[in-house]
Structures are given as structure tokens and as C-alpha cells.
Amino acid sequence: MFVHDKTGRLYSPVTTKSRNYLTISMSEPSSYSMDQAYTEIIVVRHGETAWNANGRIQGHMDVELNEVGRQQAALLADRLSLEPEISAIYSSDLKRALETAETIAERCGKFEVIKDPDLRERHLGDVQGLLFREAAKVCPEAYSAFSSRRTDQVIPGGGESLDQLYYRATSSLQRIGQKHTGIYAICQRELELPKN
Q: Which DSSP string do the residues of 44-72 spell out, in sequence order?
């Protein structure tokens, strides 16, 4: 993630030219003003892992990048090195995210990567480690919860609801934004925010 003024930009390791925007206010709604400083946070997803390539559900499982993922991280690092005024790099503590972040940090000025477990992707409970094609048969209740569109649906086996993920992720982004208001930071993370 990068931090600058006004918006949050999302990058994919593979497609860095397209941008989606997510804006999170860094202040209470009642204190909002048009000239208030914002922090731009560019969110990037980790590179590919063997589990991604094989269709295995990761969640909080600590899987490292495969060779394709390392190449994706290097390409992303090259692109992000063109961004001005980077002030910080954040990552979840999982190997795949951390390796992606460290590749970016090395290319963008040898930043120390700040680990934040709240930047992990969604905990997927009992379906973690299963292949997508087998999950519905092996753990039907957990897979049903995982596939549910209900934002309050918790996944059996310690998994999170989309609401819990959203609260955890946005709280982390707000903390980062408040810490870096008015400057530019880079934060790598793997967390996929739910669409509202």
C-alpha cells in the first residue's frame, strides 16, 4: 500500500496499469473538511503461490511465493519504484505477503517492512488448506459459509465473517493513514476487502 493524498489505489501484481479506488476517511465524519489532509494508500496483493496455482484455499495458512509469484513481485516492485515520496511499507506477517513486500522495499529504497497481522487476508476456517474443488464435499457447512453473500456469516473452524474482515482491515488502514497523513507510504498486503 502507498500513502499519499486523497485516494487509495489498488494494484494487482500482474496488472499494474489498471486502478480501482477505495477511500477511507482518516477523520470522524463530523470533523471532515474539504481541505483536510488525506493519506493515499496503494494496496497490492501478494504474488502467486503454489497453492494459488493449484486452486488450494489459503486464508491464514502461511504459504510462500512460487517462482511466478517472485517474478510478479519483481515486476510490481519495478512499477512501484516509479512512485514518488514513499515513506513506509506495511505487510501482513504471512510469508507470501512479506516476501512480496520485501521485494518492493528493496527496489524502492531499502525500507524496513512494517509487519501488521491485521493486514492478513480473511481467515477461512475449516476450508483453509482444501482444494476449491473438494471443499464443498469435505466441509459442506464451512464451504457454504465461505460461499455465502451474507456479510455476518462466520466460517466454522475459527473463520471470519466478511464484517469481521472489513472491520479488521479498515481499522488497520485507518491506523496507517493517521500515522502517515500528508505523506506518501507504501503498504503491501494480501487482504481482499469485501465489496459493499
A: E----BHHHHHTB--TT----B-HHHHHH
Q: Is 175 marked as a binding-site residue?
A: no
Residues annotated as catalytic (active site), given as ranges? 46, 121
Q: Is the dihedral of CA 152, 153, 156, 158 positive or negative?
A: negative
Tell me if 16 is assigned to a ligand binding site: no
Which CATH number is 8-188 given?
Answer: 3.40.50.1240
Query: Global pTM?
Result: 0.76
* Share of the chain residues as helix, strand and coil, in percent rounded to the nearest 5: 40, 15, 50
Q: What is the pLDDT of residues 108-146, one digit of tens each?
A: 887 899 999 999 999 999 999 999 999 999 999 999 999
Strands of 20-21's sheet, edge to edge?
20-21, 8-11, 41-44, 187-188
The reply, when asked if residue 46 is annotated as ligand binding, is yes
Provide the residue ranges of all domains of the chain, joining segments of one domain with +: 8-188
Residue 157 annotated as part of some ligand binding site = no
